[in-house]
Amino acid sequence: MLLKKYGLSLDIKREKAMHAPVMEFVQGDIGTCALDISIREMNDPVDLSELTVEIVFAKPDGTTVIQDLANGVTITDAANGKITCTLKTNTIAVAGKVHAEVRLLAGEKLLSTPRFAFDVRKALLNDEAIESMDEIPILQQLIADVQNVEGKQGPQGEPGPAGASAYDLWLTQGNTGTVDDFLRDIILGAQGPNIYPTPLTWSSLDPGQSGVEILEQIQCGGQVLKMPQPWLWLRGTTTTELIPGEMYRVSYYTRKDGTEFSDVEARFIIPYDGGSYDYVLGSEDGTREINNDWRLFTIEFRWQGENKRPQVFVQTNKASIDNPVYFAAPSLRRINT
């Protein structure tokens, strides 16, 4: 059987993939899409003999797939840093741009390569609907282990008081999101609760001028904010104080309509007396330009202001009635460093 296979080189000391080709796979293809990847350090091969290798894929719908050595990834030449990954159907289940990075693990140590991306083209004919879902092998194995535990049943005890689930406790700590968000926090966590004002509805935020519109459309679990003009703003106050000297991560899912503008940016503003902290968010592929597909934009910063609950603003630099910009699922979290 023929394979659609692309080769690329990832240098762990560079920001982007080297000589990466334009790669396209087709939604629904099974067992025929592959990547040949060479891991290098300043043009010298990285020896993978003592390492575990996995690849994280972030899909356009916000779900994540991790493929590892038990799940489609093969080390083909350890001494020369070469691996092959046969993409799972779930990895290419959603049409659009998929972003990925290779993770090299040795015990508790982790090293990530530069990110790369490929396009998934929508198939003209599908035999059946393709379900896109998160796929994290460690979590799935833990669930399977719990479900498969069998033992001798003991005597029936006295009923105890109803307790809160782990998910309920996670919510009481100020987090927001679905059970999937909770599970993803366990595996990928190391972040504080989301302190952005009403991140799922935008309802507590105050529009700076007329024209800002909150839509009924749902994206990434929350309502969509539409901005038909540049430099409009929507402001609100964080739910807790920002701590001076601490690191924070802010993110939005965002996209635009139309082709009139280029270099369209997602901006996050924190004003103070006499000025403001202005941040331009970047996408997972290292660019700052919003395009016509929903993508996650994020930036990390160290808070230099006072210990207080500041107002925060969402903005874009270019938009029009025919070329609006959309935002969804805002997040502002303290990073545990």
From TrEMBL:
InterPro entries listed in its UniProt record:
BppU_N
Q: Which domain of life is it from?
A: Bacteria
Which residue range or ranges hold the BppU N-terminal domain?
Answer: 4-147
Quote the protein name from its UniProt record: BppU N-terminal domain-containing protein
Gene source species: Desulfitobacterium chlororespirans DSM 11544
